Prior knowledge:
single chain; 115 residues; alpha/beta; Macrophage Migration Inhibitory Factor; 30% helix; 25% strand; globular; phenylpyruvate tautomerase activity; Tautomerase/MIF_sf; Macrophage migration inhibitory factor homolog
Amino acid sequence: MPCLNISTNVKLDGVDTSSILSEATSTVANIIGKPEAYVMIVLKGSVPMSFGGTEDPAAYGELVSIGGLNPDVNKKLSAAISAILEKKLSVPKSRFFIKFYDTKGSNFGWNGSTF
Length: 115
């Protein structure tokens, strides 16, 4: 049930967001070791955002997962997701923060219940 929320100040008009969503889905699933069928990716563009005092391309992400996260996995996820954003949206790796949340199944709802 990993859910990755990404907000960026980059305009997504004319961007192939499907390829970003697809690549992010497979990346998160593979690194965490969860089925792609349970991975959700949310990508929001044109979000007013400043990083280091400038409005140059930047992004912020939060990844929530029931298990599967640890310092090594988080480092791999940070590298892989920042690489996708750099390649697809021209957001430099140095202008991307990501926060990781490892939660209990009872704290995450799905299909009218919780995990």
